[in-house]
Amino acid sequence: HGAMTSRRAGRVMGMALAALLVPALLVLGVLLFLSPGTPKPFLDDQGRTLAGSISEKVFVKINGIDQGMFIQGRSARNPVLLYLHGGVPDHFLTDRYPTGLEDIFTVVWWEQRGSGLSFDPDMPPDTLNPEQLVSDTLALTDHLRARFGQHKIYLMGRSGGTFFGIQAAARAPERYHAYIAVAQMSNQLESERLAHSYMLQRYKDEGHHKMAQRLEQAPVGNTVPLPDAYLRVRDVAMHDLGVGTTRDMHSVFTDLFLASLRHREYTLSEKINLWRGKLFSGSRLWNTQLSTDLTHQVTRLDIPVYFLHGVHDYTVSYPLAKAYFDLLEAPVKGFYTFKQSAHTPFFEEPDKVREILRADVLTGRNGLADPQ
């Protein structure tokens, strides 16, 4: 009787393991199928690779570290645009939000030291600092200038990328045609206080007492690092209220994490590293950004400067960016307000962004800028 009971228990356990293993293998199979890891080519009307186009994923040794990037453009003869991402690389979002930037530029979607394609768990943590990222930006700039035979390129930063981008542009203006800031950081600690106040009031007005209570119990003060309780609710609340990455993006899990898993230009391991890198690099860079007031650090650029900002952006404050723009000295300046955008106008209002790039940025003018 004991032997029969033991065999029966073994069968039950085996069936239970199989019930768990089969779905897990199916999920793994789907993820692998969705992860060939190769960029899509540009095609002509006959479905052939477009002559003169470029679409590649490459790794370049920058200041001793292999760093990855996507380089895409309908013509490799177009001007080069080096793009600096924020807290997490966002090239995967072009699946849902095509930008059309590759119609105008050869776009370099660089995934910076410690992030995404450039994540290395063995990288010394102390090498992940603002000075190093500025140095990496300038080194990659020189590589791109040499590779594409262009004396100058264009530099675009978004969110956290603007923190390093504006410093790189100030340090080496001779390497850039212009600096383009999307959601330019300035005084980020003050930006967080403004965001907290706005989100708390919104939740109170909408009768969402649970979220209001969470924010009330996690005030943003004058010190860095920010309270863990606030950081746990921050991104959830911003996306829930439509003031985060985009106005129509309401879930970090669904709209960011799951979207990255569906992106076919990453391998599965690269998708995992995208979020490992977010955890690895996030706080190391974030606290420095919070404790630095760029309005005192960079007050002049010797190249044309363009700020693009969504009025619904509370990840990086719109009014603070406007105030920074007003005091910044530059030979040509343009501030562009996007009334239908939150944190990423080139995802949310791409047609308007392309019009500005063609009419103003490529010509060194500011005719489409907001009236001053």
Summing up helix and strand content along with how strands pair, one would put the structural category as alpha/beta
Count of extended strands:
8
Shape summary: globular
Helix tally?
12
- Tell me the fraction of residues in β-strands, as a range: 5-15%
Average pLDDT, rounded to a whole number, is 93
Oligomer: single chain
Radius of gyration, CA atoms, in whole angstroms: 23 Å
Strand order of the largest sheet: 1-2-4-3-5-6-7-8
Please give the alpha-carbon distance between the first and last residues. Answer: 90 Å
Biggest β-sheet description: 8 strands, mixed
User: What percent of residues adopt helix (DSSP H or I)?
Assistant: 40-55%
Name the helix and strand elements from N-terminus to C-terminus, one letter apiece: HEEEEHEHEHHHHHHEHEHH
Q: Spans of 5+ residues with little confidence (pLDDT < 50)?
A: none
